[in-house]
Design a protein that fits this description.
The complex is a heterodimer of chains A (195) and B (298). Chain A is of the alpha/beta class and 195 residues long. In chain A, 26% of the residues lie in helices and 35% in strands. Chain A has a seven-stranded mixed beta sheet with strand order 2-1-3-4-12-11-10. A three-stranded mixed beta sheet of chain A has the order 5-6-9. In chain A, strand 10 and strand 11 form a beta hairpin. The radius of gyration of chain A is 15 Å and the shape is globular. Chain B is α/β, with parallel strands linked by helices. In chain B, helix 6 links the parallel strand 7 and strand 8. In chain B, helix 8 crosses helix 9. The radius of gyration of chain B is 18 Å and the shape is globular. The relative contact order of chain B is 0.16. The chains are: A alpha/beta (195), B alpha/beta (298). At the A-B interface, helix 1 and helix 2 of A face helix 1, helix 2 and helix 12 of B.
Chain lengths: 195, 298
Amino acid sequence: MRIGVLALQGDFALHARALEKCGVEAVEVRKPSELDEVDGLIMPGGESTTLLKLIDAWDFAPALEKFHGRGRPIFGTCAGLIILAREVESPRQFSLGLIDVTVERNAYGRQRESFEASGVAKLDGGPIALEMVFIRAPRIRRVGPGVQVLAEHGGEPVMAREGRVLVATFHPELTDSTAVHRYFCELVSRSAIAP
Amino acid sequence: MSELNGLRIADRKHIGLAEMLKGGVIMDVTNHEQAKIAEDAGAAAVMALERVPSDIRKDGGVARMSPVKKIKEIQKAVTIPVMAKARIGHFVEAQILEALAVDYIDESEVLTPADEHFHIDKFAFRIPFVCGCRDLGEALRRIGEGAAMIRTKGEAGSGNIVEAVRHMRAVVSGIRRLTTLSPEELMTEAKNLGAPYELLRWVAKAGKLPVPNFSAGGIATPADAALMMQLGAEAVFVGSGIFKSSDPAKRARAIVQATTHFKDADVLARVSEELGDAMVGIETSKLPKEELLQTRGW
């Protein structure tokens, strides 16, 4: 099993490290054709405005839609979530619409307002305590009926899943815990077995 | 609060923002029009400053923090992070930048130093700092003071990559050397480098700095950006190189592509085509010592 990490811009290196800690081969993806060689994809945090320019320049959007259509799992953190969402606010911008949520960008404020919190995620096998690092983070403002909320902070969803798309507004790759990455690897390994 | 071997370093959320900027280009801008051009070209962040380094070099005089009004206009114009420069040791400029909620402060040798002996105590602030360095010792001193990101200095406003290469190679080979030392050699190495022993021990084991390491000072072409990335930079700062060229938007887009696809020579060749004229460079070895910006700070 190989999992790709979109390496156009952002904290792809830490996601790759987390995957390797889970014993999974991580592959940096910089061109659409490289998606053919991986079983799942992580879209890391970074600047969504920048990422969209690079996605556009390489015509990545149709390739990502096809990847999702083939049943391949995708995990987006922060900017990755913004690109995967159905709707984006402040400002409104293009997104892939692969998970039925509405997100507001930089919704807590600038870097001065970035923060850490502890929380609990409902992953396979019961609740798991997580350290959550929020960096110029977005907020999930609406969750569609098919979306399962996996973790909350202050009564708001911060981690969610719809089918094979997993998203988080915080950064599990910045902590020592690999619980969220293991959960995603499990998703990928199940989908790789399925026809 | 983060710790390494019992020594305090910058907060995880601040080092984390530097992680988010990796593989990106941070562009110097002096007003909101330039900031918008930078964002549209794919900049990962912009750096607000009063004058770009090549103008500081040409016009002389005291170079200070960007005017507050300009910073606010830039913040209003873009959604990407806005950084701003403060003079070395000028902690009140830093306090003002904190009040403005800029996303990163660059305690920068490009501006005229306010203090000849002391850098800012960066732990006293709720926003992160990036600092320049020329070698590993200087990098570790700044990290020890709380810098959440390091950038090699290069020679700002020169359009000449040679100093950036020198400084990046010095840091990378300094780190490699540490990994080969035996435990009893590390304290003497800490004394020679003038760097905190606890940090040295951590770097010797990890084989990297505890914060991201970017490159600055002299990048003028897509090839320059890719060169620094191949030498070990995790992102690049471009100052005069963009807005002193003949077609800033085009050059900015090309440098963004080159920074992402830094190992792909076909992409580098394609984006390097029809760029217009690069800024005119300076032979840095001909510059008198007192005109060098990189020797500011210690």
